[in-house]
Amino acid sequence: MKNLIIRTVTGLVFVTLVVASLFLPPVCFFAVFLTFALIGTWECLRMTEKTGASPQMVLPLLLSATLFTALHLSGRMRFQIHLSGSQPSTALYAFMVVVMLAFLVPIVELFRKKEHPLYNVASSLFPALWVALPLGVVAFWLSFFKAPYMVLALFIIIWAFDTFAYCAGSLFGKHKFFERISPKKTWEGTLIALVLTLAASTLFYFIPIWQGGGATSFGNNGVLTTPLHWIGFAFVIVVTSSLGDLVESMFKRDAQLKDSGNILPGHGGILDRLDSLFFAAPAAFVYWVVLYALDFF
């Protein structure tokens, strides 16, 4: 009972922090999600150490922070060129730093005298791709398109599917879904959760703040203007979030870890809470933008 209370309180605090950051001034979102990117990168690096790698620590953290910052700034500034002297934007400078840091990682490895340098370089670069890039996509989506309600819908669908899957699996689960990686997942829980999540996603169509895709920069001409669009949006999120969860479970199993960290009492680490987002955010963003580009109303 005590663990359930701790887990519930931690979950509520985490959800409140995420949701509030979407609607507070941009600096609040930046601070919250940059912190997630840095902690997630650190957890990923520590995880790879458990598998025998010797990743660098400082440069990967700088790389993740700079990549997230560059995507955040590019959304806010929209790659605008300053009129005075036609100087590149701050976002472009940030991307230049990202490139330099990425090339610096293998150069530094030359002088570390560690075994398995290729493995070390790969494990040092991977967190920026797996953790910082998806979080940066969320930042770009939020800031460029001014679409906090669409980003909120992304999180709601992920959380709803996880909740439905847990409840349905506990009540009806018999056949293992991916026993080699995640023994607790069942086909019954996954399929029931899929159906319930797709059905629930149609409710967004009837809620005024989500009409027109919730994108203020598009006015009333949003992209998710039919229940079918919302079902497609939810389907993309459910499939990719499930893959993201399985991938993190695969990494933890390889590292022989139960949780990626212990920063969130009752939940583990930041990666344990955001793993579903890492594949779902880019996929949902692409789905949303493609619908808009095709004018598919």
How would you describe what is shown here?
The protein is mostly helical. It has helices at residues 2-23, 26-50, 58-77, 90-109, 117-144, 148-172, 187-201, 227-255, 270-293, and strands at 176-178, 182-186. Residues 81-87 and 215-221 have low confidence and may be disordered. 41% of the residues are buried.
Instruction: Kindly report how far apart the N and C termini lie.
Output: 49 Å
Question: What string, H for helix and E for strand, traces the elements in order?
Answer: HHHHHHEEHHH
- Protein structure class: mainly alpha
User: β content, as a range?
Assistant: under 5%
Question: Globular, elongated, flat, extended or rod-shaped: what is the shape?
Answer: globular
Helical amount: over 70%
Counted up, domains total: 2
Radius of gyration: 20 Å
How is the largest sheet built, in terms of strand order? Answer: 1-2
Helical stretch tally: 9
Average pLDDT taken over every residue: 88
Count of extended strands: 2
**Major sheet:** 2 strands, antiparallel
Unreliable stretches: 81-87, 215-221
Topology:
Elements: H1 2-23, H2 26-50, H3 58-77, H4 90-109, H5 117-144, H6 148-172, E1 176-178, E2 182-186, H7 187-201, H8 227-255, H9 270-293
Antiparallel strand pairs: 1-2
Entry summary:
This protein is an all-alpha fold and 297 residues long.
Keywords:
mainly alpha; 70% helix
